[in-house]
Amino acid sequence: MANDSKTWRCGKYELSFDRPRIMGVLNVTPDSFSDGGEHFDPDAAIEYGLAMLDAGADIIDVGGESTRPGFTPVNPDEEARRVLPVVRALAKEGAIVSIDTRHVAVAKAAVRCGASIVNDVTGFTDPKMVEFVATSTCGVIVMHAGEVAAPTRTHATVQLDTSAAAFVAEKAREAAAEAAREAEKPARRRRGKLLGEPKTEAKLPGGVVQPSLPFGDPEPAPEPADEQKQEAPAAEEAAPVSEAAATPEPAPEPNDRLAAMMRRSARREEAYVPTSQLRRFTLPDSAPIMRRVMGFLSDQARTLIHAGVSRDRICIDPGPGFGKTANEDIVIQRETAKMASLGYPLMCAVSRKRFVGAVSGVTEAAARDAATFGVCLGAIQAGANIVRVHDVTGFAQFLNGYWAVAKPQPRRAFVAVGSNLGHRCDNIRAARDMIAEIPLTCVSNCSRIYESEPAYETRQDAFANAVIEIKTELAPLVLLDELMKIEAELGRDRSKKTKANGPRTIDLDLLWMDGETHGGKKLRLPHPLIGERDFVLVPLEDLMHDPARFFRYNGVEVKEPEERVGHIVGELGRM
What we know:
By secondary structure, the chain is an alpha/beta fold. Helix content is about 35%, strand content about 15%. The strands form 5 sheets. Strands 12-7-6-5-4-3-14-13 form an 8-stranded parallel beta sheet. Strand 1 (about 5-10) and strand 2 form a beta hairpin. Helix 1 (about 40-55) packs across helix 2, helix 2 (about 75-90) runs parallel beside helix 3 (about 105-110) and helix 4 (about 125-135) packs across helix 9. The radius of gyration is 30 Å and the shape is elongated. The two termini are about 40 Å apart. About 40% of the residues are buried.
């Protein structure tokens, strides 16, 4: 189950984990494995991101490069062009935005546009990415991407010969082989390392050693055939001028280790390799797999901490599907509790992955949501804190139903109540009584009823205002829907023909809920206008000591009394 002692600082936001948090997947790409092209248009992507927030997403993860098996790498300029308008628009609506990228230039631009989290699929193995996040305040997600299988042992038939002649001959062959290897080495050396040897590690400021990517060696670029080499000059001469002047698309980088690893992963999944080995167990041994995964995650987290990233900004993700087989992914998911014991917030990012299809028998990726929910539930029970899903609406309903039954968890919240039509005080008391009837909710305290000047639309009658303190086990969006039902029942007209801040029989605003931060069109928590409303802050003084200080601590800008709107002019009595 979620561990309520963990928190995750992401820029100006701080996420608590008294309940699991939902991260919605927003792929601004034409080729993602399950929804490629659906949200490639920036306006469509923004609309979909806002819809996921209104459906229950706590975080929106925006990505501009598909990393499905066999993907084609995207250059940073194109990736930035795709994602930056979306990041900027969602952040403006108060959303916690995560940028899913492995390019430091894209991460920097996205954070400047309002992103609060950097989700690096290469696990911060790029020293430049480490240096960047160390100088910012954003949250970071360290993901493991790479093969976890132990090297396959080969067996050769050995013919033993104990004669002295055979011994001498063997030594001669070894000497000849060694001489041949020495002859192939480059003559020049640089800093004690042979030229042409791959770089295995890098130095960060402070002497921290940054390991290389855990993806194995990149695939070598294929050499053209001899016939193609001979025909190439003739083809170039025959090419028309117009074609020569055309600008070609940039080719994928030949040494892109992530792309090479995902191509190998795709081939492993598609190929059937016959074997004569008999196994006693259905899954491979978990110990070597978890040593690789947990070792990498721990090492990278320590690298970030040594570089200056505070521990409470780090989240870890075992990277299901990235270089791993279905069996290996199942092994890793079954060891969720071990990964949670590392003490960092833990992400479960299994949505629609191949292994989910393997265990459920569902071939089409977009049809794997029900199976995804089952895997996510197992991860939540074992300690996962964040669930990354494509179907936010379905999973939010699934989680709310499970959490209401399995995890009793009343939380404090404040609801502002106002009225300036009809019998104002009676309307407020009726709303209080109806709030007390909401499922899994009780009214624990009420302020006095105050009279205030009208705010925003000043040419209307004075308002009666109060604040109600409640305890609820409902999710914020579910509670908001219940409050809207009460408004409608008491005669509130929210149609487009009425003014947003005009006269109304009742007005219910969810101001704040313990442990909740939310953005979007439908609901913002904390309420973004608390700090400027005198008709809210004065009634709150009946319920808590120094509400201005309380909300400033929660990141809300609170204005001085003379700068506020809707000033209190009198008291109308008790609730």
